[in-house]
Design goal:
The longest helix is centred in the middle third of the chain and has 8 residues. The chain is elongated. Helices cover about 5% and strands about 40% of the residues. Strand 12 and strand 13 form a beta hairpin. It is mainly β. The N and C termini lie far apart (about 60 Å). It has a five-stranded parallel β-sheet, with no helix packed on it.
């Protein structure tokens, strides 16, 4: 049993029970039960049960969840394997030419990937996956994320971050935090917040 208040964040699994107040955020999975009040936010997955007061926002991610509240955002009908829908859901910038701006986490040498087959991502160049497979499964493509921080979650050794451009119709969403593509154009280096990093030329 957890009581979450102020700006706390809680992930509840199994048969956990959470009472959320203030501006707390709760992600509920399994058969967890959440009582939410104030301006709390709840993400309801699996068979979770949520009872919320009038100003709580509930994001419904599963048709099996039971929710009671005034502000329910039902995303169960979204096709998040559709590239355009996936981009819109994550707030990804899409340029007028139809290219999505996404992010890649790399090491000091602008490389990422398996230790035995790293891929280098030079700024200003197009990088192509040698093993591309057109599906929505992990692997066999170049993996990208909506935010630099999400890219870091998939590559903990990362020390640098890159903004890349990918035609939306070439994207293949894998899950809630990453997609893959047959090729990406490396736009520039950015920091963890997505702000451009000024590159100082060597004298």
């Amino acid at each position: 049993h957890v009581q979450a208040s102020d700006s706390a964040t809680v992930a509840a699994y199994g048969s956990a029970t959470v009472a959320a107040y203030g501006s707390a955020t709760v992600e509920a999975y399994g058969s967890a039960t959440v009582e939410a009040h104030g301006s709390a936010t709840v993400q309801a997955h699996d068979s979770a049960t949520v009872r919320a007061s009038a100003w709580v926002a509930i994001h419904l991610h599963s048709a099996h969840a039971t929710v009671a509240g005034r502000h329910i955002i039902d995303v169960t009908g979204l096709d998040l394997q559709d590239p355009a829908t996936w981009c819109a859901y994550h707030g990804v910038q899409v340029d007028d030419d139809g290219r999505a701006r996404l992010y890649k986490a790399v090491d000091d040498n602008l490389a990422a990937g398996h230790a035995w087959q790293p891929t280098t991502y030079p700024v200003g160049q197009t990088v192509t996956a040698p093993d591309w497979r057109d599906d929505n499964s992990c692997g066999h493509g170049l993996h990208v994320c909506p935010r630099p921080a999400q890219a870091r979650d998939h590559y903990h050794e990362a020390t640098r971050y890159l903004e890349v451009a990918v035609p939306v119709d070439q994207l293949r969403p894998i899950d809630d935090s990453k997609a893959k593509a047959p090729e990406v154009y490396v736009v520039r280096e950015v920091d963890l917040s997505g702000r451009p990093v000024e590159v100082v030329a060597e004298s």
